[in-house]
Amino acid sequence: MRIKEFMIPDVISVNEDTTVKELLALLVSKRIGGVPVVSDDNILVGVISDGDVIRYLRPSSRTVFDMFALVMVSEQEKLTDKLQYALKEPVSKMMKTKDIKSLSPEHDLEDALQIFSQHRFKKIPILDDNKKVVGVLSRGDLLRHITIKIIEEK
To answer: Which of 112, 137, 110 is nearest to 123 (CA)?
Structure first.
């Protein structure tokens, strides 16, 4: 069974200049957890997920030790301050660009199962020979397809 038989061809994507605010609005309105990041000519340049945004928003803390007074000062950035700053940032600041796994429409179902079982990815971009995004496959889509096939065959 080939990926092209059950991938989602209507890909929701963003570009590198999309702001985090625009990304979050898109993820919430479409009820999705991540999207491919593409260039103007639809070539994959990265991926971004809700988890990437959460990791970026994690408050950073700094601890300073004064050896003479033995005083410890801890400063923690407020989440609301970081969120206000982050909403204006482009997704390029937090998107994943390395170790992205992708498949072609001609790959087999087993190839997708292998990637999903070995990595914590929620989605796999489907690329044509020119590295353009032509589809996306999520874990849920794969499980739905497998379940439907099992039910139909019984």
So the answer is: 137
Instruction: Look at 45-49, 63-67, 115-119, 147-151 and tell me which has the smallest mean pLDDT.
Output: 63-67
Q: Look up the pTM and report it.
A: 0.80
Domains of the chain are 3-153 (3.10.580.10)
Q: Looking only at Cα atoms, what is the longest distance across the chain?
A: 76
pLDDT tens track for 89-144: 999 999 999 999 999 999 999 999 999 999 888 899 999 999 999 999 999 888 88
What is the rounded CA–CA span in Å between residue 136 and residue 7?
6
Backbone angles phi, psi at 61, to 5 degrees: -125, 155
**Residue 77: closest CA among 65, 63, 61, 95:** 61
